[in-house]
Amino acid sequence: MMNFNIDGVLAMAAASLAACALFAAVMLSFSLRRWRQRCATVEDSVAAMRRELEIMASISLRTGRRVNRMEREYSGVAERIESVELRGPAQCFEQAIDFARRGTDSGRLTQQFGLSRAEADLVTRLHGRKKTASAL
After folding, report:
1. b/e for 96-129, b at 16 or more Cβ within 10 A?
2. In this structure, is residue 83 part of a structural domain?
3. Domain that holds residue 94
4. What is the pTM of this model?
5. Confidence bin at 133 (pLDDT 50/70/90)
6. How far apart are CA 109 and CA 111, in angstroms?
7. How many folded domains does the chain comprise?
8. Residue 109 in contact with residue 100, Cβ under 8 Å?
9. Does 90 map to a domain?
10. In sequence order, which residues have a C-beta less than 8 Å from that of residue 25 and are 6 or more positions away?
11. Is residue 93 a contact partner of residue 123, using CB atoms and an 8 Å limit?
């Protein structure tokens, strides 16, 4: 009788272990499926981030090119502003007008007063000596 009980107990223990192993396999299968879904979601997120990063890099490159172009186009502006600030606002023009009235040409006004070529030409035309018919 003892053998029968031990065999029965062993059979029940084996059945219990088999049920536990089956339960563990099912749980492992569900867990593995969830991990695969998570990995797929992460891969999709990484791909989306890569696309966004490529877009940002493209925008950054275009912005950098624009900044470089603007720097080239306006590189003389700082020097021009400094020149204007150094010469003083009205006094420089007043002196240039006086010199133009005395017959100084626009090239000399540009050199002496830091005027741009256009400014010197304008001062000369407006305030310079009028050419007479005998001078022509």
Report:
1. bbebbeeebebeebbeebbbeeebbbbbbeeebe
2. yes
3. 76-127
4. 0.42
5. very low
6. 5
7. 1
8. yes
9. yes
10. none
11. yes
Q: Which of 135, 122, 124 is nearest to 102 (CA)?
A: 124
- Directed axis angle between helix 2-73 and helix 75-87, to 10°? 50
Q: How far apart are CA 131 and CA 121, in angstroms?
A: 15
Q: Give the residue-averaged pLDDT of 112-132.
A: 83
Phi, psi of 129 (to 5 degrees): -65, 135
Q: Among 116, 124, 31, which residue's Cα sits nearest to residue 77?
A: 116
Calculate what percentage of the chain has a pLDDT beyond 90.
50
Q: What's the average model confidence in pLDDT over 5-19?
A: 91
In a domain, 102, yes or no: yes
Residue 70 exposed, middle or buried by CB count within 10 Å (0-12, 13-18, 19+): exposed
47-83: pLDDT as tens digits: 999 999 999 999 999 999 999 999 888 887 777 666 6
Q: pLDDT tens across 92-110, in order? A: 788 888 999 999 998 988 8
* Residue 15 domain-assigned (yes or no): no
